[in-house]
Write a structure and sequence with these properties.
Strands 2-1-3-4-6-5-7-8 form an eight-stranded mixed beta sheet, sandwiched between helices. Helix content is 37%, strand content 16%. It contains eleven helices and eight strands. The protein has one domain: Rossmann fold (3-Layer(aba) Sandwich), CATH 3.40.50. A hairpin with a 3-residue loop joins strand 7 and strand 8. With 295 residues, it is α/β, with parallel strands linked by helices.
Length: 295
């Protein structure tokens, strides 16, 4: 399903940033911050996003940026939003842009607490599936059997399903997105921007170096992640209403793995195992959609 949503390239994200050539995360930041607009304050923890944002007065983003600690992004954003409201500035959006390390792992306690309180913010996780800014170590987002600097033989545990975890908090809005479907990404950010309460979006953002990809591969590999069912694009409203926007087209997961250096060690048996895991996850997601809010 394609949409006719027009992406606003209003120029909040500027040229001259320090991302690697072909960086999927820089592309996602561009869509997110341009869609959020100029009436935004962004909280950015240590991450590749912090490198992309840069420091004032030479930031690549034409909005105020708060560089916080890795574990406290959601708490900082909650405090900023409450201070704005107390000053009568409720029309200013507060945005967190954090990596998977600062979301799935180190920053999760603050994120879960903010979700439990239904704090009024948009939290976007740029998910490149590892601690890429410090040498491509594994995170809670790293896929099963992927090779990283800290799991050279392949990660022995699976990737956390952060969308399901956040949906379990029953917050107003959870979504998954990727740079392979930019209109879908921008539409979801705009929808979240115009809502109230806690809104959470996780965006798959391929890392050229950490995944072992050519510089022009980020968009194509993102689309394969969706078409194989590895990373379906969904929306969850109030924790119970599931919508699949884009998902598996029956493409074998081997097509997704073969372009990435981090999966080159896989045996045929391991690929078959991962295919079975993806198929099971896709079936479970479809059942959530079919059951609906009362299932």
């Amino acid at each position: 399903m394609r949409t006719n949503y027009e992406i606003d390239e209003a120029g909040v994200f500027l040229s001259g940033h320090h991302a690697c050539a072909g960086c999927g995360e820089a592309l996602a930041v561009r869509y997110v911050i341009n869609t959020m607009g100029s009436r935004t304050i962004a909280v950015v923890p240590p991450s590749c996003i912090a490198i992309i944002a840069g420091l004032q007065p030479n930031s690549s983003m034409h909005v105020p940026i708060v560089h916080g600690t890795l574990e406290s992004s959601a708490a900082a954003a909650a405090g900023i939003k409450r201070a704005l409201v107390s000053q009568g500035k409720d029309g200013v959006n507060v945005l967190v842009m954090a990596g998977d390390g600062g979301t799935y792992d180190i920053g999760f306690q603050a994120l879960s607490g903010a979700a439990e309180r239904n704090e009024d913010m948009v939290y976007v996780c740029m998910d490149n599936e590892g601690y890429m800014n410090t040498g491509a170590q594994k995170s809670g987002s790293t896929p099963h059997l992927a090779s990283t600097a800290s799991t050279p033989g392949g990660k022995l545990t699976g990737k956390k399903n952060i969308a399901e975890i956040m949906a379990a908090h029953r917050i107003p809005y959870v979504a998954t997105a990727t740079v392979g479907y930019p209109d879908d990404l921008a539409r979801k950010v705009a929808k979240a921007r115009d809502m109230k309460g806690m809104r959470f979006i996780v965006v798959l953002t391929p890392c050229i170096d950490g995944w072992g990809l050519p510089e022009n591969a980020a968009v194509g590999i993102s689309r394969l992640a969706v078409e194989t069912g590895v990373f379906p694009l969904i929306e969850v409203e109030d924790g119970v209403r599931y919508t699949i926007n884009h998902g598996s087209k029956g493409v074998p997961v081997e097509r997704y793995f073969e372009g990435q250096k981090r999966f080159r060690h896989l045996s045929p048996e391991q690929i078959a195992q991962l295919q079975a895991e993806v198929d099971e996850g896709w079936s479970l997601l479809q059942s959530r959609v079919e059951c609906g809010p009362t299932g």
